[in-house]
Amino acid sequence: MTGFSDIVGKRGIVESMLRSIKEDRVGHAYILTGPEGIGKKTLSMAFASLLLCKGNTFPDPCGHCMPCRLIPGNANPDLMIIDGDGKSIGVELIRELQHDVVVRPMYSDRKVYIINNADKMTLQAQNCLLKTLEEPPSYAVIILNASNMEALLATVKSRATAYMLKKNTDEEVREFLVEKYGGKLGGLDFIVAYADGIIGTAVSLAESREFFELRKKTVNLLVGLKNSSRLRALDALSLFEENRDYTDMILKMMALFYRDMLVALAAGNERLLINSDIKDIILDNARHYTPSKLIRNIEAIEEASRNLAQNANYQLCLEVMLMKFQEE
Amino acid sequence: MSYISLYRKWRPQVFEDVVEQEHVVRTLRNSVISGRIAHAYLFCGTRGTGKTTMAHILARAINCLDPVNGDPCNRCEICTGILDGSILDVIEIDAASNNSVDNVREIRDEVVYAPSRAKYKVYIIDEVHMLSTGAFNALLKTLEEPPPHVVFILATTEPHRLPATILSRCQRFDFRRISAEGIVARLHKIAAANGITLDADAAGLIAKLSDGALRDAISLLDQCIAPGNEVISYNDVLSVAGMVNDDFMADLADFIINRDTVSVLNAVSELVAQGKDTGKFIGDMILYFRNMLVCKVASSPEKLLELRGDVIERLKKQSEKLDHNLLISIIRDLSECEANLKWSAHPRILLEATLIKLSEMNLNIAENDVLTRLARLEHIIERGALTGAAGAAGETQKGGADSRPESPNETAGIEREPAGDDKSGYNAENNKSVQIDGAKSKNSKKTAAQEFQYRRIPEWDQVVTDIKNSGRMAIYLYLVGTYAVELGTGAIGVVFTAENRTIKDYFTKTENLDVVKEAASRRLGRTVRVKFIDEEDISGIKEEKPDTRDEVEEKLKDIARRHNVPLEVVE
């Protein structure tokens, strides 16, 4: 059972939500936005649970009433969660929502609709939602979770109250990790820095040991590329091929590594580094680069990840990027 | 449960209340008064300008039993019936959800029936741009000649997606964006009715942010009220909208101008820690530099910029430090970044990279001015070509050093470098008078010590000044009192006199070396390697590839001896 007390940080938004419930000023449409893993789902579930709860245990749902007991099994007919099938959310799912929304709530006073990854809604789907989003039945609350606000139509955005979820401070992330995994977690400092204020990332990092191994390989690869006069780009591709599921992760590590070297060159301040546990390697390698070269490399990574997202040829895309790294 | 969002609650019920759009209101009202009701209307305009609202009002106005000056009375049984939905003659269709031919066929089948209680049967088709092509075409005949008791009102934000055949069958009304004053007035009215004090500049900011869409403005106001504020200030709006305040932006601009990269990066991490949206932020930043540009070029920017006086003062001061070409290029860089950010997987890194680029490179004020750089390049090419040609001529004609226009070694530096070994060999055999570069030619008639002098690089002082200007004071200080010479094959030597030779060690650090290298390469317009040498070394230093050079020299001497030609080795 998710409650508001499980939410780390984000005080302003939580207060505003609680207050709206207490004062009976709950709006009919919300957009929760913020980077992936920031806690949009958690927050929307907490909000929905409290809205549906019949008990009187404000600010957390009671967990005993009928609606509360049905939520964990996703069996509460008053709560509909739309996830889409990965790539996109089509107009069919929104039509389902529209058919469902006119049916009055079964157990609670409200019905809550949560659309996860709302930025994946197709144009048709968004347009289809417009009228419902503007004037749903009085008992309905629609919550859109979107990490990319830009992908939502202006007409959708203007109909809903948007909450921007702020990143947590490093302290909050650290406390959370210590509480969840105990103080013995290895590489705590690094995880905190790498998570960059996002609890979701911190959790996935803490739970995967492979991550460190992967970063080590990535960094070695980049250092190797730099120090080799031979065209190594084609061999380097094997790292990507072996870890194909983690392509985005590797690209991010590369970008962060170059970013750190850039920061080291430009600012000379170690405190600003994200890969702080390998700062020796970073400082050591940074001086072989010029800032403009590092910026070009980062741009090459950007370009590659954009092209990959648009289904460009996997191998070509990455090879071009790696060759650009080797260019002087 | 009873709560209704402000923008729904404050939806106007009569023409009188509609904010602006007078051109639409006047026409519709008159047509209601005179009873000349068209059979199809098309309302278009951006979001939140009142299309759907106007459609609702019109539907009631033409059916109202007791219209007041063209406005619906909202009291008669028809009006109340329409408002509470008990009269089924006003049919609102969401075209985005019902966009198929079948849906349109349903309409077509229904229109033939007379209205149940009202005078007209009104079809409000909202978001009409989403109808499929088939559906549009199925609608055409009905839309052109509906039964006399039917009125269609189509509303859309995207009229360009409607086929021309639909457009030509409707009376079209374009809704304008609502002016800032109109929005501000409305906001104050709503705030007052809710017992909330809305600061004037807060209202102004909301109006600016909502970009002419009243619904956005009221949504934002609603959101500002939500945390329970009684008084809404400028900063409340900023924080709700996820924007940074003016001071933050002004500080950041200062950091960039002063090339304080550390502070720039700190500002970015603060921004990220506060959870601000990077895309929005960079949009604001573009606007800020745009305002700076306006301050730069306009004589009285106060008239053009709707900003507080102190903000403008600061902008003006900052604009004095930057060239307007530079400002334009900053805006261009930021816009590029903005475009990339939209789809970026690593927005923070991209933002940091762009800002570092701005603070590191772009602001080498004279450097970045493309025209200045171009002029310098032209200068170099001109001079290089001139002396090069003269040198070559002199060499073939006289084979002497005297005819060269500038210092002899300079020409040698330019001329010899690409010539290489082959040419020397060729000359040796054909002209029977040979000059060879070489520092260690001890058997020549003129001794090396007299003849040999490394060419001094005249631009060195400027290189040092550049380093000073880029803020690397330590490096600058160490370089004071040095001069530089050409070592050939793309290397230059920085010469330290005997008294400051200990300083040389400072440059064994690669990062310091790189700074000098970069500055020198930029100033000289070519990539150079930098060596640090003592003054007394200068006579003894070897060329870049001493071994091959010596070999060539020996070979040439050998050839010369065999052909019995006097061989003169200069330099």
Structure, explained:
The complex is a heterodimer of chains A (328) and B (571). With 328 residues, chain A is of the alpha/beta class. Chain A has three domains: 4-164, Rossmann fold, CATH 3.40.50; 169-207; 209-326, Zinc Finger, Delta Prime, domain 3 (Up-down Bundle), CATH 1.20.272.10. In chain A, 53% of the residues lie in helices and 8% in strands. Chain A has 15 helices and five strands. Chain A has helices at 11-22, 40-52, 66-70, 91-101, 123-134, 154-157, 170-181, 188-195, 199-207, 210-227, 233-242, 247-267, 279-286, 291-309, 314-326, and strands at 29-33, 79-82, 111-115, 140-146, 161-164. A five-stranded parallel sheet of chain A has the order 2-3-4-1-5, with helices on both faces. In chain A, helix 5 links the parallel strand 3 and strand 4. In chain A, helix 7 (170-181) crosses helix 9. The longest helix of chain A is centred in the last third of the chain and has 21 residues, at 247-267. Chain B has five domains: 6-174, P-loop containing nucleotide triphosphate hydrolases (Rossmann fold, 3-Layer(aba) Sandwich), CATH 3.40.50.300; 180-240, Helicase, Ruva Protein, domain 3 (Orthogonal Bundle), CATH 1.10.8.60; 246-363, Zinc Finger, Delta Prime, domain 3; 372-440 and 546-568, no CATH class; 460-539, DnaA, N-terminal domain (GMP Synthetase, Chain A, domain 3, 2-Layer Sandwich), CATH 3.30.300. Residues 363-367, 387-451 and 541-546 of chain B have low confidence and may be disordered. Chain B is α/β, with parallel strands linked by helices. Chain B has a five-stranded parallel sheet, covered by helices on one side. In chain B, strands 9-10-11 form a three-stranded mixed sheet, with helices on one face. Chain B has a two-stranded parallel sheet with strand order 6-7. Chains A and B meet through helix 1, helix 4, helix 5, helix 6 and strand 5 of A and helix 10, helix 13, helix 17 and helix 24 of B.
